[in-house]
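Q: what does this look like with adenosine-5'-diphosphate bound?
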Amino acid sequence: MANGLFEKVLIANRGEIALRIHRACREMGIQTVAVHSTADADAMHVRLADESVCIGPPSARQSYLNIPAILSAASITGADAIHPGIGFMAENAQFAEMVEEHGFTFIGPTPDHIRMMGDKVVAKRSVAACGLPVVPGSDGPVEDLDAAIEVARSIGFPVLIKAAAGGGGKGMKVATSLDGMREAWHMARSEARAAFGNDQVYLEKYLGRPRHIEIQLLADLHGTVVHFGERDCSVQRRHQKVIEEAPSPALNASQRDYIGELAAKTTRQLGYRGLGTMEFLYEDGAFFFIEMNTRLQVEHTITEMITGVDLVREQIRVATGAPLGYDQSDIRFHGHAIECRINAEHPETFLPSPGRIDGYHAPGGLGIRIDSALYDGYVVPPYYDSLIAKLVVHGGTRNECLMRLRRALDEFVIDGINTSLPLHQMIVAQPDFLNGSYDIHWLEHLMSGEKP
Ligand code: ADP
């Protein structure tokens, strides 16, 4: 580490997020090492990195999740640190531990914090002990159906049965009455077992019309914690985010300060370090913690647009041990930002649509940012996440941002495969979206033809 910075960072990821991390490193004068599967030999992150190492065949299990291959690539290239990106190894405590054991810096929180937040039951308990409000529910994991019924009776239907190891909306089932309990219980458990190899579940009150509001946090290794305001990620399908915006149309400045400061205080109390996001459900003026993501998030871009802070640069900087060098009063918010997640999938059936891009034109102009690893002639492989581009738009006001977003969506051309561009065009034309009056169920109601 010369000048207190890393000289070389290995990026253990692919696609747009690998590119995003490469860009931050390049601007900091840090060399980058890309790792890739054989399916990604022509990928943009491989082309742009200073060095690249092939770590296995297309299957993620044998490449991007292959710990020995990633550590060997770091060794042979002489990297100082490993950035896990999003997904794959990003929330794997054992990986973080092994990275450090092999003498590299893991750009992320401690393995203990990853473990604490990876078990959602432990996460809820830990933050509740610091005074953060959580969704009412079972006190810990629920062992059997009878116990689940007892909890459901005491908190009242509808209830949500959730996987302790959950992620990506998997292992989550609603029971609206006693009759539905048995089926929801078995479905949640078997989905959790299949997705996470762990069928432990817990119960929460199912909120009828909440918004998903999350707080971006950053902690250095010296006890300074700041928040960068909230993101509203309520436009969802199957509990997965489709569009995010910052600030939330539902919060005023004092609500923002209240939840931001509470989340920052809790982060400090937990001794957390690095970037992290606390996620809340917000209903009738009250916030309820649901989970903390111990990594960079896809939607960090909108926070960057309204604060002017490069969060990946900050994440790398604090991982070197550098103090933040600023405090909460230095963080200012300017205007409004919205992100559309563009996936390689059919806009109505949501079936994945890999294949060759045979026409590509990205929108441009003031306030437009595209985070994508696409190029004309690129072949979207069928093996990985379907996110292919993030369209991020900034405007001085929410209205300006919306007008700009609509014209940017109209300019965007991705030919050769199906994408979710038409879905986004449909959403941004909805009066409810324009008014900012939507909750986490709104998009699904809209698409099913029910009145939201
Ligand atoms: P995951 O880790 O699988 O993403 P989360 O706990 O973050 O799971 O929840 C994902 C989404 O599921 C939330 O954004 C929200 O839309 C929905 N959800 C979670 N908990 C509840 C709840 N108690 N009531 C209603 N919806 C919920």
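The pocket of adenosine-5'-diphosphate is lined by residues 135, 160, 166-170, 204-207, 210, 212, 236, 239, 279, 281, 290-291, 440 (CB under 6 Å). The chain has three domains: 8-107, 136-205, 211-448.
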